[in-house]
Amino acid sequence: MTRRHVAVVLGLSVALAGILTVTGTRLAASQTPSLVALRVSGPVPAREPFHPFWDRLRRIEVPLSAQQVVPPKSQGPLPFLRGQRWTVRVRAAHDGDRLYLLLEWPDSSPERSLAAVQDFTDAAAVQFPAVAGQAVPALCMGDPKGAVNIWQWKAAWQTLVERPDRGIRDRYPNAVADLYPFHGEDVFYPGRAVGNPFSQARRRSAVDNLVAAGFGSLTAAPLDSLTGWGEWRDGRWRVVFSRPLQVGSPGSVDLRVGDRTDLAVAVWDGAVRERDGMKSVGGFVTLEVSDRQLPGAGRGIWLWLLLLLVPGYGLAAWARTRGGRP
């Protein structure tokens, strides 16, 4: 191979690396990560994402790639990749009744508002096959032969749960609301009448339960037992999803202890105006709902004590055999 050929190969390699870096494209992993949800006993801090309990759980790293979108959302004449080059840390546990999932990812500027048309919220979602253990469906909204169940948390929804009357007032403190003569009549509130989540005046949960079986089929399937709570701290979001293993709702995945199924994650960054299909996505990983018990918090302490006591006892015994002289 001549020097010219070597220079061409190196140039193409550098160009390819640059394209992958700019577009946020991840190379395929050689092995599918496996997330194990161990059984826990006692209360789970589902509304305290930074509680030390979560650090006891084994985590896996899920790399995210940019989502391909088409004009006009690609902001160009050709399809383009939109998303962040993030890695999401995922942890899982269950208590025999409920499944708990923790997602953690970096974000330098939290976005929690939808009070203006120029506001976009941070969000995260997990996606399952609608039937646990079934063949892996298409990653993007499933397909007619493989429906999916999606749990989506939004920081803006959580703000409305915490402060239901302050969103618009905080954004426009000097606005005046006149009397509206048709208050409560469904014909003037069609979104609320058909159950559109975006039209809800009072939100009870920061998480939406969604079902889909292909492009254009995403549908809200409200589920009161599905909950989620997020907290931003020191440049990182942590979000906890919680739902009973069994719900018996059409399109929503049912799980049992011992099941193995697939799980995918996605993240939206409101600071760069991501929404809808503009997001960062990760491929499917394996989720196992294990019957193994999470080791107690004190196990590590006792192990260290044992490691200290055994050598100490041996040293004392050796000293006695030497007549007390070390």
Question: In summary, what is this structure?
Answer:
It is built from six helices and 15 strands. With 326 residues, it is α+β, with helices and mostly antiparallel strands.
Could you please describe the fold and organization of this structure?
With 326 residues, the chain is α+β, with helices and mostly antiparallel strands. It contains 6 helices and 15 strands. The protein has helices at residues 3-23, 52-55, 155-162, 167-171, 190-193, 299-321, and strands spanning 34-39, 60-63, 65-69, 80-82, 87-94, 98-106, 123-129, 148-154, 207-212, 219-220, 227-233, 236-244, 260-268, 280-281, 285-293. The chain has a 15-stranded mixed beta sheet that branches. The N and C termini lie far apart (69 Å). Residues 22-30 and 297-306 have low confidence and may be disordered.
Largest sheet: 15 strands, mixed
Helical run tally = 6
State the shape: globular
Percentage of residues in strands: 25-35%
Supply database-style keywords.
single chain; 326 residues; alpha+beta; 15-stranded mixed beta sheet; 6 helices; globular
How are the SSEs placed, and which strands pair?
Layout: H1 3-23, E1 34-39, H2 52-55, E2 60-63, E3 65-69, E4 80-82, E5 87-94, E6 98-106, E7 123-129, E8 148-154, H3 155-162, H4 167-171, H5 190-193, E9 207-212, E10 219-220, E11 227-233, E12 236-244, E13 260-268, E14 280-281, E15 285-293, H6 299-321
Parallel strand pairs: 1-5, 1-15
Antiparallel strand pairs: 2-5, 3-4, 3-14, 5-6, 6-12, 7-8, 7-13, 8-9, 9-10, 11-12, 13-14, 13-15
